[in-house]
Amino acid sequence: MPNSNGRALICGGSRTPFVRAFAEYVEIDTIALAAMAVRGTLERSRVPWDAVDAVVWGGVILPPTSPNVGRELVLDLKLPSRVEARTVTRACASGLQAITDAVAAVERGDADVVIAGGSDSTSNAPIPMPESFIRKVGPVVMGRKSGFTDYLGLLARLSPTRDLLPRQPRVAERSTGELMGEAAESMAKRHQISREAQDAWTVRSHQRAEAAWTSGRFADEVVPVKLPDGQVLARDTLVRADTDMEKLAKLRPVFSKDGTLTAANSTALTDGAGAVIVASERAAERLGLTPLACLRSSAYIGVDPADQLLIGPALAMPRALARAGLSLEEVDLVDLHEAFAAVVLVVRAVLENDAFARERLGMDRAPGHIADEKLNVHGGSVALGHPFGATGARMVLTMANELHRTGKSTALLGICAAGGLGAAAVLGRV
Amino acid sequence: MSDRLLALSSNSTARSLAKSLGVPLPPRLERDTGPWRDLPLAGRRIVVWTGEGAGSTALSAALAESLPRLGGDVAVAAGEVAAFEAAGQAWARPPRPLAENERPAALVFDASGITDVAALQQLWSALSPQVRGLLASGRVLVLSRPPRGLPLRAAAAQRSLEGFVRSLAKELGRTGATAQLVEVPHGAEDRIGAVLAFLLSPRSTYVSGQAWRISTLLPAAFTPSRPLDGRRALVTGAARGIGAATARALAREGARVIVHDHPGAEAEAREVAAELHGDVLLADLGDEEGLQRLVGDPRLEALDVLVQNAGITRDRTLARMSAEEWDLLMRVNLEAPLRLAETLGERLRSGGAMVCLSSIGGIAGNMGQTNYAASKAGIIGMVESAAEGYASRGVAVSAIAPGFIETRMSAAIPFATREVARRIANLSQGGLPEDVAEVVTFLASPSGRALSGSVLRVCGGNLIGA
Question: Is there a contact between A120 and A60 (Cβ–Cβ < 8 Å)?
Fold first, then answer.
């Protein structure tokens, strides 16, 4: 049925500073981070709390006992109880997923004002006990008839090293067992992306992020966070203005002995949250909000994780462009998630490749070259960090603000994600 | 029934003991019986020699285009590197040379350009240094052109490739590796990828020393996953053995399977059908009433895949054979398949396929099997006759001739004969029903249409036969 909602508009948002895992945010879990980003978003956009219909939240490491982070943040913030919420997960594209879901809900007429975003706290990832521990302990502790001798027997059977030591958490693919860094390493090798090119991209990312802080550009979208010790954190902690090629060259490869990926040209484990307001045209007008951008199209796609795990954006971005009726050249800005500097360079290279376009995209010619001045204008995840669920929201927020601020008309987003997923979206200025 | 020697070979102590005593043990064969996937050749190192001359350009282009797309990681030993470089870009799989001590999974030699005896020497110079390095269960493929119609010397050169491959297959068998000839007529180059996806993968396990003659009858294309999605299939004699394995493989790739067998096998047929969420059809193909019931079954009105597998043996030397033994076998093994072809086969939907089970006995003959061999050779005649007419309706038809397969039928063979039958195969062991089922599934799929009209042996390179 047609509805009078019209387009969904992105009307501002905010994010917390992004912080290296196991540092300043170690006592702040993903729900608390999410609540801070949402509170900041509501306050800065001046949306009356009563106008909010729903929350769509993205997250990757969800708290096992309260996985619906969206609902928990509603309750923690004391938003009206009727504000319904769901939590979505699509690996590193979860934040973007939340926003495309919110846009769909508004344009379908299901809601007028939706808060969408995402968060993750790697510092608070539950560390699972070894399965052998659970299998031995479970039946005794949960069993109704266990007696003293059962417990005694259990103690005798537990091996301190094999059963009790928690395993190191790894960002590994379930289907292949490959670490994400190993996958990126093999892509860099197959596409002949040099260490120098990756390091140069890393320096660029840090310089641009630093510039965005210096110019006050990021201060507009980041809400300061009060830490448990009373101090206030207002800036991302991973951005390093003093990074240069010489320093980066000293780092050793981390995923393979003769590899090219280092701790610097890969993203660090990060904690953080980001959110935007998605409102119908009618609601935006009624509430006097400032529309920044609309979602002109989006596209998600899967690839074989055993082949090129992180190539997804190169397939998803041309789809999103086609759905928006745009060519790559016509787009004013491109924001590519920097899971690894190598991934950005690979995606950029294959989008210029005619053979790739013919075989993989069904196009006669390659989408083309992404000009340097268009791409990741304020840096990316290599410098800022990558709280899995928050990154998509950060990218939408930064690009929506950029369109509004510069008067440019379109921005293309691309995100690679675990499981061999690719995500893309086109934002348009309104 | 079980192959004790093969069981022994999986024990590492027994294996090394046997090796030191000089007793040959059959190799463990690599098998893939999981669902079809996007990249059937993922992670496989393939050394390629592309041919010379104008006739080979189309072939090397087809190889260059298909191998990286299927996941193959190519090393070009000689020939057209540029074609592979251009095509490999799309998949970030440009050709790269073998590293020192790196062992390839496959050797693919395009011999289609060889037109003279002297040039045949390239086979020796290319493959001789490489065959020893081939991985266990590796593959050697030689690509050729049909010799018929070629000038004297070219025809001789092309035909000689078949003899080369058959002998090499025997030499490689000890490691579980196989060798095949792939004959590509002009204009059929675009079907190579679909055939190589199967031949270079661990699904062609028990096929060795064969000539795969690609036909121009029907277009064919590789379908990455669930190639039979939405198709309706009938497998006759599917309560157990090859039929049951085939029903399972077809269902795994998406087909809705009707499991047929004679009423005496009802319990087993029901079990297979229940497992596959398929239907059961009970009919005795040995009598007219059963045959009529089968062809008149309303569930068979819309059918895509017909696998004619049901068959019996009534072994006896001709002098001692009774008329009943001759008659019953002919009714089940040849009259029934012909009737099914004339009725169900005639109305298979476009895009469908009929696959008929012949036997190596039908090609080479067998002591005590005049009736069986006659019926199975008859199946070949039927398939060859039907191919063109079926193609005009968009339907593929082919035959499979299994060698010694470990089934209840072969378990009834006397011990000594059975043991000989196993060991004389290149791979020195019997095949599994699953090995035949994978070939049937391939032939029933859009990929297998490239082989329409063919008779393929699934015999592990059995010594007996052409």
Answer: yes
